[in-house]
């Protein structure tokens, strides 16, 4: 922890440089990063479906765990 001030300065310098580069990129290409609501709905539905399937599998395995021990 001897050089905490130097590390903090370097980290802040890196962060501010990255932020400035990102802002410059946004000014250069203002349409970058647009995402439609349809895409968001599809992703949410896909993740929800995957969680439901995983939960169902876990429930079935938990229910029949004693019966599966002999296999």
Automatic annotation (TrEMBL):
Transmembrane domains' residue ranges: 35-62
Keywords, ordered alphabetically: Membrane, Transmembrane, Transmembrane helix
Source organism superkingdom: Bacteria
Protein name: Integral membrane protein
Organism of this sequence: Streptomyces viridiviolaceus
Lineage: Bacteria, Bacillati, Actinomycetota, Actinomycetes, Kitasatosporales
